[in-house]
Amino acid sequence: MFNKKWFRVAIAVILTVIAMYIMIYLDVWFRAKHSYNEAEKAAANNDWKMAYTWYQTAVEQFSPPNSKWVKMSKEKMPIALEKWKEDLRKKKIPFEDYMLE
Q1: Rounded distance, CA 51 to CA 73, Å?
Q2: Could you give the number of structural domains in the chain?
Q3: Is residue 22 in a domain?
Q4: Containing domain of residue 71, as a range?
Q5: What is the pLDDT of residues 3-34, one digit of tens each?
Q6: Distance (Å, rounded) from C-alpha 18 to C-alpha 26?
Q7: Is residue 20 part of a domain?
């Protein structure tokens, strides 16, 4: 059976598809991690607008799969939004909720 050409081609196709899905998963995972880390840097600098945007990017563009980076971004996104709103209020900049999301 291993000597038949169709069998070898089928195995090669299956292995290629599996490798492709693994590479896509890893790419999305690393991009979500990068977005989360950028959001953390922005939050450390009290730049809540950028922090919220990076968390939102991780959640909206890099899920599925729901990696730990996406889950942590989902948890921190509302917190960053509230702190961004507080900053706008302190600066007396008028805004509506729909403008920020």
Answers
A1: 10
A2: 1
A3: no
A4: 29-100
A5: 788 888 999 999 999 999 999 999 999 999 99
A6: 12
A7: no
Residue 84: inside a domain: yes
If one counts every other C-beta atom within 10 angstroms of the C-beta of residue 55, the result is 29
Q: Is the pLDDT of residue 100 over 90?
A: no
The rounded distance, in Å, linking the Cα atoms of 18 and 67 is 19
Asked if 73 contacts 35 with a C-beta cutoff of 8 angstroms, the reply is yes
Q: CB-side exposure of 88: number of CA atoms within 13 Å?
A: 15
* Spatial CA neighbour of 33 closest among 61, 80, 76, 68: 68
Residue range 44-74, pLDDT digits in tens: 999 999 999 999 999 999 888 888 999 999 9
pLDDT of residue 4: 85
- Residue 66 sits at φ, ψ, to 5 deg, of -85, 80
In a domain, 73, yes or no: yes
